[in-house]
Amino acid sequence: MTGSILQKIILPAAVIISGFAAIVPLSGYISRVRPQLPEGYEDTDLNFKGSHLKGFAFGMEGLLADVYFMRSLQYIGAKLLSSKAETINIDDLRDLNPRLVYPFLDNATGLDPHFIAAYSYGAMVLPAIDKEKAIELASKGIANNPNEWRLYQHLGYIYWKLGRYDEAAETYKRGSEISGAEPFMKIMAATVKTEGGSRETSRAIYRQMLAGSVEEHVRITAERRLQELDSLDEREAIDGVLAAFKERSDRCANNLSEILPMLTTVKLPENRDFRVNRSNQIVDPSGAPYILDRETCRVRLDADLTKLPLK
What we know:
By secondary structure, the protein is mainly alpha-helical. Among the domains are: 51-145; 225-300, no CATH class. The chain is built from 11 helices and 4 strands. Strands 1-2 form a two-stranded antiparallel ribbon. Strands 3-4 form a two-stranded antiparallel ribbon. A hairpin with a 5-residue loop joins β1 and β2 (282-283). α2 (61-82) runs antiparallel to α3 and α5 runs antiparallel to α6. The relative contact order is 0.06.
């Protein structure tokens, strides 16, 4: 009996305890002798396509697709956080070299061809990384889900972002013919073709994205883009008043508060008003005060405080 207890309980327990005791010094040794990994090591290419796992994942394809999708979100987030650039142009992320975003999304949609959220995320972020891959992923979504009119909206949006207005209009038109499509699709098919990249067209596209999407990343993108459009209107108006003040006074204004009375007569699109904070500062749609550049006598965004793209 004693021998049985020794063999079945005491010896295995001793082995486990000894193993745990060895972990600490061994981990320290590994940390000391581990070679420095080269920069970009985390960007090692993926060795297989997700679609090749279909039928071999024992019904776990959906879960694996979610993993790849989450990795795409974490990957681009890590790239943004680790960037040493003073400013990041959200319309051109190539300097961050986020080349695995497409493979992650391609694997996610290869495992789950009906993963609409992955296609929509790709439509938002890929145009700033690889335009052709953005089109490729959106087209793949339509091929796998021909009756999902929102995928035509995403592809139309990509073409519109690239200035390919005829292709955008045709894609919106194809999407508008699908059962259940929003009337907005037919309107955009005509508007994009005739008005192209006008600010009014931009506003219509982003408002529909904000109103019609339940996906958070799409709504956040649309909201920020609408704020950016409002800010462009405001900066144009402020610059116009600054130019008029300079011509009348033969000098640039000392600060933006000096031209506030003149701004009260300016009409912004859709009867919007300028935003003024408690310190009597004119602020952008994200709440950051505008800055007057007295050398150029023009207004600009505060790079340290604004949440808007620095254009």
